[in-house]
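// run 5 | inverse folding | seed 20
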């Protein structure tokens, strides 16, 4: 009878021994094993991503000529609008450069935009992250900001040979120096505990007491440019409610994030570039 009970408990004993052995393994060894496992898994996930891209290509290839003509017209209109925006952007940059030289301000930190396809999404209660198809082979660095057309995606948390892990702004581990649109007073944004089936949200602190918002009249939260990570002006989300904090000096509130974060197929990594030394 005891032998039968031992056979039944053998899987649990083996699992307990493995767990105990893992606890005593040095942290450096755990890190190496984890990185090695990730590197072995990455080619499989990247291959699946390439296959999805190929499927999308052939699905677009099968569309009719009329649909292609309409899509071409839309692209012409978008290109014309982007050309105007580029000219305005170049003029604004020239004005900023002139003001910087007049005021003897230090040159702002430059970034190189690196577009990357999304390989995998993890939106469980523990992981709020994306895996992208570019890593150290494209110069991606840990801590680099990640954006998309709608604003902020998150920060690069891990960099591997051919892939990188991006922690989303919905994750509690992400804090960003922010402000409200049209208001230069700094506030602090942090991701929240988001269930996988609900709309993603974050939280803000140190909101001035004279700020009032409602779900029907929200305020846009943008990056402030402080902290040296994100450039200023990128959208984080919409502040939909505020309430006084415990000290009564500030307010705190909830930020509704863009639903597009859960369906991104491509993002842009802002890889910091070294600022050239100023001429004497």
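// decoded
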């Amino acid at each position: 009878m005891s032998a039968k009970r031992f056979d039944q408990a053998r899987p649990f004993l083996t699992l307990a021994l493995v767990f105990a052995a893992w606890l005593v393994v040095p942290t450096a060894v755990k890190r190496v094993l984890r990185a090695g496992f990730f590197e072995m898994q990455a080619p499989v996930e990247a291959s699946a991503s390439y296959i999805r891209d190929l499927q999308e290509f052939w699905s677009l290839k099968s569309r009719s000529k009329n649909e292609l003509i309409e899509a071409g017209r839309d692209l012409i209109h978008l290109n014309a609008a982007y050309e105007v925006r580029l000219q305005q952007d170049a003029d604004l940059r020239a004005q900023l450069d002139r003001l910087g030289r007049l005021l003897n301000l230090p040159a702002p930190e430059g970034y190189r935009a690196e577009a990357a396809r999304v390989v995998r999404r993890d939106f469980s209660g523990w992981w709020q992250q994306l895996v992208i198809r570019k890593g150290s082979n494209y110069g991606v660095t840990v801590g680099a900001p990640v954006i998309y057309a709608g604003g902020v995606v998150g920060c690069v948390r891990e960099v591997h040979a051919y892939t990188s892990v991006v922690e989303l702004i919905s994750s509690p581990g992400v804090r960003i120096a922010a402000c409200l649109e049209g208001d230069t007073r700094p506030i602090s944004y942090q991701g929240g505990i988001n269930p996988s089936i609900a709309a993603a949200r974050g939280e803000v602190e140190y909101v001035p007491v004279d700020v009032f918002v409602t779900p029907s009249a929200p305020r846009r939260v943008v990056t402030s440019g402080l902290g040296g990570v994100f450039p200023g002006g990128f959208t984080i989300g919409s502040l939909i409610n505020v309430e006084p904090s415990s000290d009564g000096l500030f307010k705190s509130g909830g930020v509704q994030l863009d639903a597009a974060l859960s369906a991104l197929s491509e993002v842009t990594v802002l890889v910091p570039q070294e600022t050239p030394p100023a001429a004497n």
